[in-house]
Amino acid sequence: MNFRFANGRAGGESIRILTLARLTEIKGHEYALRAVANCATASAVRYDIVGERALRKNLEQLIGQLGYRKPSRCRGLRRRRIKAHMAESHIFVLASVNVRRRP
């Protein structure tokens, strides 16, 4: 895939953050959402998480609680839309959590 760099954003446009990943606990989406909300005014940020799995409803609730700008949301992954999602975003975040397993 060839991705073209989109320079800047229009005045007043929200910062668009994108994550493409499975919606599982080990991916650390909750921590990424909280970290971005602590660093920026969440209402100035649109954070889209694209993927499928069990945490989708929990993450949508957290997005609402943290006050992210609408239409921040979790969406299902459609492979043909990956390039468009990337082109529409300013920042790509791929978080993960290191989990120690007990022997």
Would you kindly provide a brief summary of this structure?
By secondary structure, the chain is of the alpha/beta class. It has helices spanning 29-39, 56-66, 82-88; strands at residues 15-20, 45-50, 73-75, 91-92. Helix 1 (29-39) packs parallel to helix 2.
Characteristic terms for this protein:
103 residues, alpha/beta, 3 helices, 17% strand
Q: What does the model show?
A:
- The structure is a single chain.
- This protein has one domain (15-92).
- Helix 2 (56-66) links the parallel strand 2 and strand 3 (73-75).
- The protein has 3 helices and 4 strands, in the order βαβαβαβ.
- The longest helix has 11 residues, at 29-39.
- Helix 1 packs parallel to helix 2 (56-66).
- It is α/β, with parallel strands linked by helices and 103 residues long.
- The protein has helices at residues 29-39, 56-66, 82-88; strands at 15-20, 45-50, 73-75, 91-92.
